[in-house]
Structure formats: C-alpha cells, structure tokens
Amino acid sequence: MDSTEIAKTGEPVLVPEKVSKRKLVKWLIALLILGIAAIIGYRYWRHEQLYASTDNAYLNAHTVEVAAQVSGPVVRVYVRNNQLVHTGDPLFDIDPAPYQLALAKAQAQLQLAEQAVSQQTAAVATAQAQVAERQAELQNAQSNYARTRQLVAQRFLSSQAGETARTQAETAVAALKAAQASLEQARSALGNTGDKNASVQAAQVAVNQALLDLQRTHVIASAQGNIANLSLRPGSTVEPGVPLFVIIGNQEYWVDANFKETELQHIHPGLPATVYVDMYPDHPFHGVVESISGGSGTVFSLLPPQNATGNWVKVTQRVPVRVRLTNPEQDYPLRIGTSATVEVRVAGS
Predict the structure, then answer these.
(1) Within-domain flag for 115
(2) Any residues with CB less than 8 A from the CB of 30 and at least 6 apart, and which?
(3) pLDDT tier at 3 (50, 70, 90 boundaries)?
(4) What's the angle, vertex CA 197, arms to CA 195 and CA 201, rounded to 5?
(5) Does residue 130 fall inside a structural domain?
(6) Containing H/E element for 50?
(7) Using CB atoms within 10 A as the burial measure, which of 23, 86, 297, 325 is most buried?
(8) What is the enclosing helix (H) or strand (E) of 343?
(9) What is the per-residue pLDDT across 180-198, written as a single tens digit (0 to 9) for each?
(10) Which residues is 287 bridged to in the sheet?
C-alpha cells in the first residue's frame, strides 16, 4: 500500500494495490503503441529512402491501326471485336473482281510490249542486212570506178564512162549512209533487248502493281494482339489509308509512370521496379526502367504553359518514365490505359 486518502471520519485509509496496477498497464499499452508507431514510421522512412513511387501511372502497349491499301467494298470480315489474332491471320476481304480485271489487262499489255520488242528486233536485223548489202555495193562501185578511171586515162573508155562510174560510187556511199541511219533509228526504237527493254519493264511493273493490288484485297494481321474498336461490316466501302480498327499488341507492355521532378535524381534506366495494376492489386508485376522522357508532360501538351507571364506560379512538374514489364502473364490479362502504381528501387539495387 503506497498511498493514503482521508475518509469522511478524518482517519487515513490505505489505497488498494490494484490502482497502481492499472496505471502500469496503461503505461505499458502507451509504450507499446509508441513502439509500434516508431517501427511503422521507421519502415515508412526507410521505404521512402529505398524507393521512389507514384500512383500516377498508366499501362500501355504497342497498337497497330489497320487500314486498307486499296479501295472497294468489303465482301467478308473474318474477325470480331476483342478477338485475339496472330500474325498472318485473315482480317477482311475487299471485292477482288476489279483488280483481277486490272491484272489481266496489265498482263495483256506486257505481251503486246514483248511482241513489239520482237518486231523491233527483227527491224534491227533487217537494217543490219541492208547496211551489209550497201557496203558490198559500195565496194563494187569503188572498184568499178577505179578500173574505169584507168581505162579512161588509157583512152580505152570515154570520159563519160568515167563520170558514170564516179556517180555510181558516190551513190553507193550515200546509200550506205542511209542504211546506217536506218539501222541507228531501228536500234534507238528498240532500246535494250529482252527483259531489259524499257517498254517491257514498264509493262512488267504494271503487272506487278496489279498483282500487288489484287493481293491487298485480302487483308491479314501484321501483328499479334486483340482486335479493338471494330465496326467494319460486309458491304462497307473502304478507302486507302483510312484507319478501320486497332490491333493491341500483347507481346510487350510498359507503364508510363509520371514521377515528380524532385524524384528523378536517383532514377535511371536499368533500375528494377515493381508495378501494381489496379485491376490486380494483390499481384505484383516486375519491371525495369527503360527510359526517361526528355521533358515534362506539360511541354508536349496542346497548350504548353508560358512561364514568362507575370502570374507565374511554381508548380512541381511530372516527367514520364517508361517502365517495361518483364513478366506479363496470360492468367492476368492487361488492358492499356488502366491505372497502376509503380515503385522504383533507387538505393541498394
């Protein structure tokens, strides 16, 4: 008994021992609470020293906009919205009839070009034969003129015969030149022979283009992923280059985490990270810092802030950091644009 109190009678009365025990329990509870708070505070402080974290993060992946490369009505659609497709899977068909006709026309033009080349080759051969003939005629005329000139000098022939022989030689020279000019003209019209001929090559290019256009009426998937935003139906008319729907790739995912500029001092590519997607809050995904943007998000907005104005207020900016997921799992399908929380280990890694 440690203390006393005065009773109504004025005599001292001893205080029960259980009162001091209550105080002791209260102090122990208070110390326990303070200890737990200290441990939690230390763990929080230590976590802040080891990790940089943000909940301003969004999941992303590669997307491929599917567009037709030729125009025409759609005759068949092979896929539906949100369907998984693999590279090379058929997506839709455009009416191939006009392109089949265009291919047939181009093939006919190629045959005509080849026939024209054959005719021009024969014309070159004919011109070469004429040149050879005129050369022989010239040699004969020149020999005849030489003999005639000797006979005229010996007065066995008249001077008129000599003039006639000279005229024949000159005429043979002119005929040879004309034949040679015709040969050059024929060669110029022909150009290169065979497959190297310009007309044949142009016709072959037209055939290749028509064949390519025909192949493009059958549209296939250029990447693996899920179909999104599909509204295409048979009977729809498509135009080249106009996006029709999207394929969201499922081979690689990353998170665009918007960290405060004051948190970037210790963040650099290669650091490990942990990602918690809001869809699966109890399932952590592993990642690695892949890159850091060269500017804050506001710089690339439609109307970037003008800090030189008189009403400038300093606001902590956020800079996008790309964190690539290293372990995406089929059991936990991901959706682009969804929210996430990212923790980057900046110390002790």
Answers:
(1) yes
(2) none
(3) very low
(4) 70
(5) yes
(6) helix 18-50
(7) 325
(8) strand 339-345
(9) 887 777 777 766 666 677 8
(10) 273, 325
Burial 175-196 (b: 16+ CB within 10 A, else e): bbeebbebbeebbeebeeeeee
Alpha carbons 47 and 36: distance in angstroms, whole number: 16
Name the residue with tokens 């737990």: 36
| Interacting residues of 325 by C-beta distance below 8 A, sequence separation 6+ | 252, 253, 254, 255, 275, 285, 286, 287, 334
Quick one: how far is CA 224 from the chain centroid?
14
C-alpha to C-alpha distance for 242 and 72, rounded to whole angstroms: 12
- Specify whether the CB–CB gap between 75 and 93 falls below 8 A: yes
Which of 176, 189, 195, 192 lies closest to 128 in space, CA to CA?
176
pTM value is 0.68
In a domain, 107, yes or no: yes
Q: How far is CA 244 from CA 99, 203, 240, 290, 335, in A?
A: 21, 33, 10, 31, 20
* Residue 238 CB neighbour total at 10 angstroms: 19
Three-state DSSP state, 260: strand
Q: Which domain holds residue 176?
A: 99-213
In this predicted structure, the answer to whether residue 273 has a pLDDT above a threshold of 90 is yes
Q: How many Å apart are CA 301 and CA 226, to the nearest integer? A: 29
- The identity of residue 160, as a single letter, is Q
- In this structure, is residue 150 part of a structural domain? yes
Amino acid letter, residue 117: V
Amino acid 168 reads Q
> Burial letters for 137-153: b for 16+ Cβ neighbours within 10 Å, e otherwise?
bbeebbebbeebeeebe
284: exposed, middle or buried (Cβ count in 10 Å: 0-12, 13-18, 19+): middle
Residue 167 near residue 114 (C-beta atoms within 8 A): no
Tell me how many domains the chain contains: 1
The first and second tokens of residue 68, run together, are 């037709």
Q: Give the residue among 282, 284, 266 at the shortest CA–CA distance from 274.
A: 284
What confidence tens digit (pLDDT) does each residue in 80-127 have? 999 999 999 999 999 999 999 999 999 999 988 888 777 777 777 887
